């Protein structure tokens, strides 16, 4: 009983020694373990670093602030992510090159709440140090294995190298966001007017700030005006300014936003809400490069670049005489369109991770991750409020969370539904239509009508109604395929956008 073999002694000693380690390096490849260890021993105690060739060799208990570094092996990563409590363990994953990671790889890594990616470009910058986190009335000591110049998000969003040192953070890995950033950086050095379109909450002002910060005008701050936030008369005085005595209450001279934006950029948000009369005055400013404050008889030369944004269809407004065509072509020299979040799911992946980390740090909260079922719910939701809606939800989930892990039960019920409709533009879902009609209506205009054989003599088919039902189904399928974008759905159906809108309004009216 007391005769313990030398092998057993070695194993017990090894496990005892491992339990005191700070960093565990797990890889079946010795060269990867050596590479990581060589980088760490520059700042960390070599005795506190343990190399393991398999996850099964991990001890059952860990000290606070334990770091586990594993090669990109899904079995290893899944095993580490199940360690409880995860908040005491930080999981780092080594890959040779982040460009080798595809969309599914990134989904897997974020679902398993990894903290950092080590790769060939940042491995030499890793440092292990002790630091003090000074909070009000208390100080906490932590150990940290960090690379101060790099983060997981920056490494995953390696396509965004062009915005480094601009002060703008745009996180996304979709081809769409790559092309938008590339286009914004390309046109930044020009003086052309830019029109940014997209749904509310897609980040139009962020792109405007990127263009300004990359331009030669970045020495002066960008001036912003929300055209929908002011009545017509007040917006004019905000833009052009006024002279003392110009109207009742004008006790002093006041410079306008156009004047303040001289040698800088003026961002006109919600340009579609600007009145026709004010469009005429602003058109002259763009053409002549001069302004005339209210109550003044003198004009003043200015050097302003105009960037506009709207969530409305200005071409449709022009057709209804709600927007001036000449003004539209002046502000729309270079168009940039931002797709809704539901059409770029790879960016939802990154943004879930970003907001989770952001609010956990900001709220001094111990939330360390999100479960796979909760992640899938958020990934498949329609996000009509786009990035802003996602940000608000995750802030709420972090603030209210007590367990450290966000799960499906923490998410409000409305997010379990895949909803592509907003408050002002509702349409019947395919499932709702099928429920109301008692059977599936196929796109091939093969209507399933339930006929009672006993009443065959009295049977009548309302052809017009049945055709309308089929049309509703076809339109809704197109709308769902197009992600709720009417212009895209209209093209699929071979209709004008206005015709499609009228049909949707008519069906909604009939439904009520």
Could you explain how this protein is built, in words?
The protein is an alpha/beta fold. It folds into four domains: 8-146, 3-Layer(aba) Sandwich (Rossmann fold); 160-338, Rossmann fold, CATH 3.40.50; 342-412, Helicase, Ruva Protein, domain 3 (Orthogonal Bundle); 430-511, Arc Repressor Mutant, subunit A (Orthogonal Bundle). The chain is built from 19 helices and 18 strands. Helix 6 crosses helix 7. The N and C termini lie far apart (83 Å). Residues 1-19, 130-150 and 419-457 have low confidence and may be disordered.
By DSSP, the count of extended strands is 18
The multimeric state of the shown protein is single chain
Trace the largest sheet across and list its strands: 2-1-3-4-5
Distance between the termini: 83 Å
Q: Under the CATH scheme, which architecture of the largest domain would be assigned?
A: 3-Layer(aba) Sandwich
In brief:
The chain contains 19 helices and 18 strands.
SSE layout:
Blueprint: H1 6-19, E1 23-26, H2 30-40, E2 49-52, E3 66-71, H3 74-81, E4 89-94, H4 103-111, E5 116-118, E6 127-135, E7 138-146, H5 152-156, H6 175-187, E8 194-198, H7 204-213, E9 223-226, H8 232-240, E10 241-242, E11 254-255, H9 257-260, E12 264-269, H10 276-288, E13 290-291, E14 300-301, E15 304-310, H11 314-319, H12 325-331, E16 334-338, H13 345-362, E17 369-370, H14 372-379, H15 386-400, E18 405-406, H16 430-437, H17 463-481, H18 486-493, H19 497-511
Helix pairs in contact: 4-13, 6-7, 13-15, 17-18, 18-19
């Amino acid at each position: 009983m007391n005769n313990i073999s030398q092998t057993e002694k070695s194993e017990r000693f090894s496990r005892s020694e491992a339990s005191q380690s700070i960093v565990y390096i797990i890889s079946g490849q010795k060269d990867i373990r050596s590479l990581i260890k060589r980088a760490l021993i520059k700042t960390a105690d070599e005795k506190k670093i343990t190399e393991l060739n398999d996850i099964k060799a991990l001890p059952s208990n860990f000290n606070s602030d334990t770091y586990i570094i594993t090669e990109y092996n899904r079995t290893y990563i899944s095993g580490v992510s199940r360690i409880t409590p995860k908040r005491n363990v930080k999981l780092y994953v080594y890959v040779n090159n982040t460009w080798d990671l595809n969309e599914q790889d990134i989904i897997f890594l974020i679902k398993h709440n990894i903290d950092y990616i080590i790769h060939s470009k940042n491995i030499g910058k890793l440092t292990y140090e002790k630091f003090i986190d000074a909070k009000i009335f208390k100080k906490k000591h932590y150990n940290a294995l960090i690379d101060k110049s790099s983060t997981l998000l920056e490494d995953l969003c390696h396509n965004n190298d062009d915005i480094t040192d601009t002060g703008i953070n745009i996180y996304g890995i979709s081809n769409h966001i790559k092309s938008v950033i590339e286009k914004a950086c390309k046109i930044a050095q020009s003086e052309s007017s830019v029109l940014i379109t997209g749904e509310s909450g897609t980040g139009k002002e962020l792109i405007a700030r990127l263009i300004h910060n990359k331009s030669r005008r970045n020495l002066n701050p960008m001036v912003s005006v929300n055209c929908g936030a002011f009545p017509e008369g007040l917006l004019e005085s905000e833009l052009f300014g006024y002279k003392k005595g110009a109207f009742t209450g004008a006790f002093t001279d006041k410079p306008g936003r156009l004047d303040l934006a001289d040698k800088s950029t003026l961002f006109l948000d919600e340009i579609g809400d600007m009145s026709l009369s004010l469009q005429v005055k602003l058109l002259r400013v763009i053409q002549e490069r001069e302004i005339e404050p209210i109550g003044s008889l003198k004009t003043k030369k200015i050097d302003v670049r105009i960037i506009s944004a709207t969530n409305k269809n200005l071409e449709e407004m022009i057709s209804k005489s709600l927007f001036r065509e000449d003004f539209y072509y002046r502000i729309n020299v270079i168009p940039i369109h931002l797709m809704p979040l539901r059409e770029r799911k790879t960016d939802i992946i990154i943004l879930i991770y970003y907001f989770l980390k952001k609010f956990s740090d900001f709220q001094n909260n111990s939330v360390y991750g999100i479960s796979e079922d909760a992640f899938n719910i958020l990934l498949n939701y329609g996000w009509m409020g786009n990035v802003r809606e996602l940000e608000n939800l995750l802030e709420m989930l972090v603030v209210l969370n007590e367990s450290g892990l966000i799960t499906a039960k923490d998410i409000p019920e409305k997010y379990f539904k895949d909803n592509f409709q907003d408050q002002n533009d509702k349409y019947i879902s395919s499932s709702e239509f099928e429920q109301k009609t008692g059977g599936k209506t196929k796109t091939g205009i093969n209507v399933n009508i339930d006929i009672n054989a006993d009443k065959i003599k009295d049977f009548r088919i309302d052809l017009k109604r049945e055709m309308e039902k089929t049309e509703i189904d076809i339109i809704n399928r197109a709308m769902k395929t197009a992600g709720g974008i009417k212009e895209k759905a209209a093209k699929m159906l071979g209709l004008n956008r206005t015709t499609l809108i009228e049909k949707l309004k008519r069906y909604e009216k009939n439904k009520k």
